[in-house]
Amino acid sequence: MIRVDQARKSFGTLVAVNDVTVDIPAGGVTSIIGPNGSGKTTLLSLISRLAPMDSGTISVSGLDVTATASRDLAKKMAILRQENHLTMRLSVRDLVGFGRFPHSQGRLTSVDREHIDRALEQLDLTPMAEKFVDELSGGQRQRAFIAMVLAQDTDYLLLDEPLNNLDMKHSVETMKLIRRMADEFGKTVVVVVHDINFASCYSDRILAMRDGELMCQGTPADIMTPDVLRTIYDIDIRIETIGDQRIGVYFT
Amino acid sequence: MATSLVTTTATAVPGTPVPSTAAGRSRTALPLTLGIIGVLLLAAASMFVGVSDVTLPKLIAGDTNAWDILLISRVPRTIAVILAGMALAVAGLIMQQMARNRFVEPSMVGTVESAMLGILAVTIFLPATPVLGKMGVAAVAALVGTWIFLTIISRLPTRNTLLVPLVGIMLGGVISAITTFFAYRYDLLQTLNTWMIGDFSGVLRGRYELLWIVAALTLIGYLAADRFTVAGMGADFTTNLGLNYRTIMRLGMSIVALITAVVVVTVGAIPFLGLVVPNLVSLIFGDNLRKAVPWTAVFGAGIVLVCDIISRTIRYPYEVPVSMVMGVIGASFFLVMLIRQRAKNRL
Question: Quick one: which of A74, A104, A198, B8 has the fewest CB in 10 Å?
């Protein structure tokens, strides 16, 4: 379980995360949605100890993120940020291999290699494993990064807009993979997504943020209503039920 | 951003011994061995280049004069060239990882300039300080200069590829101006030149041994190669993998500053080396430092050996400073690389 208690973070006068308190239970997929600048990414950074908190406490699986050794946290949770403009020429296999660093400290064992091969396989990267990351398309590169955090083999997986740069096919495949990570491997996945319909179709829980505060949380059925979405996004979104999925129509 | 989906083999530069797709350890070990043999051959050639007559027949005949020249001058000089070449190239590589930019090296971001300011300060205020003490002050100054550079670029609003080296050049220019001002006031401009212009002609037995320090530093750089690779991916990546970004940066800065200080004090600055070699290695072998550090060391030693041999033969029987040869070769090398890179649309 991820416990966020009164977490606060401000940049100058801007309060990015304003005393947020939330429990994210272990297992399943939790999506964080909200307009630009609502504090989604900052909240994820606080949970993953990438940014220091001004006040409050956060624990992941009982480990206080500000007090636990970074190396131990790295075996518990993995975070993938959205801006991954890597200028380095690393082969895909090497990049994914670095995901094993918390376990191997650089000396790869056969267990590490199995994890790497499996992660490459799961993201369709095996044919291009020896290519340099800077020679891949944006979508392939994004998959390589996801493979890297998968290889890290943590119970908790935090993904900040993993669908960035991905086309429809790979967006769907990535969300399906995230679903499988939760269902088959029992991981707890927290994912920031922009598209409310991906959140609706693939998550167990949705957290909706606005202006640094947690507006509401609940199942997709709770959140995917015109009233709730209006309070989050300030626009009218029609909800259609297609199959058993709720789809928000916000194009017109 | 490269968006090509086409599987090209454009990663390998024509004429390179191994395609960059080689992943297995055994497939990379052989070319590296060949590279080391190449450096040793160049080193052997370097022993026989110079004004004094040292030839194989004379050595075999037991000519004491030839043996003296070899052991007092040629061998120390060759070792100095290899050590300095290796270490400066690796320092450039580590610097590029820390700055996350391919176009920087210690001699263009204020590190070398700061080291020179440090030595100048010791020379003015405590002229009796032994060489090791001068080196220490130079290293501390270089560390401060490097830290200032990295702090400035970490605060830049955009991480523009060309803005980072520009900031470095400006910082280096400012520090260099201060150094020149005081050197002029204290009539030390000529002394300043001996540090500024790298030259192996003064290397003799008993006057270069401190350079062995950089061999140890290069080894430390290799042992920490994985950490520098991770740091090159950014602070967030590093933290995610459970490593302390600041610790790695401190280690990197220390290695770069110490290598710079030792080389500047013993032989003087050699420009472009730290820029050209890591870029060349990156182009062929990529940026996984575990693989790149050994190759950078091999290429660094090899290129400086070639430059030093040229510097001894181009105006025979006179010598030109190796830094000038390196400057010419390095600059043209770099220009070609930039154009190639642009052609591949990867800048």
Answer: B8
Q: Name the closest residue on chain A to residue B224, using Cα atoms.
A: A106
Percent of chain B residues past pLDDT 70, beyond the cut: 90
Q: For chain A, what is the domain count? A: 1
C-alpha separations of B30 from B27, B37, B295 in Å: 6, 11, 12
Average pLDDT of every residue of chain B: 87
Among B86, B11, B115, which residue's Cα sits nearest to residue B277? B86
- Domain spanning B55-343: CATH 1.10.3470.10: yes
What's the Cα-to-Cα distance from B197 to each of A150, B182, B323, B324, rounded to whole Å?
50, 18, 6, 8
Whether residue A10 is contained in a domain is answered as yes
What is the rounded distance in angstroms from the CA atom of residue A42 to the CA atom of residue A19? 12
Which residues in chain A have their CB less than 8 angstroms from residue B280's CB? none
| Interchain contact, B2 vs A134, CB within 8 Å | yes
User: What does the block give as tokens for B186?
Assistant: 């204290």
Residue A61 sits in which domain range? 2-87+156-249
Q: Which residue of A has its CA nearest to B101?
A: A87
Closest CA–CA distance from residue B288 to any residue of chain A (Å):
6
State the CATH number of the domain containing residue A28.
3.40.50.300
Task: Work out the average pLDDT over B92-114.
Answer: 93
Does B24 contact A at CB distance below 8 Å? no
User: Do A50 and B5 lie within an 8 Å CB cutoff?
Assistant: no
pLDDT band of residue B26 (cuts 50, 70, 90) is low
Indicate the Cα dihedral angle B174, B177, B179, B180, nearest 10°. Answer: 170
User: From residue B141, how far is each of A47, A106, B113 by CA, in Å?
Assistant: 39, 33, 9
Chains A, B: CB pairs < 8 Å: 95
Contact A88 B1 (CB under 8 A): no
B101 touching chain A per CB within 8 A: yes
**What is the per-residue pLDDT for B28?**
67
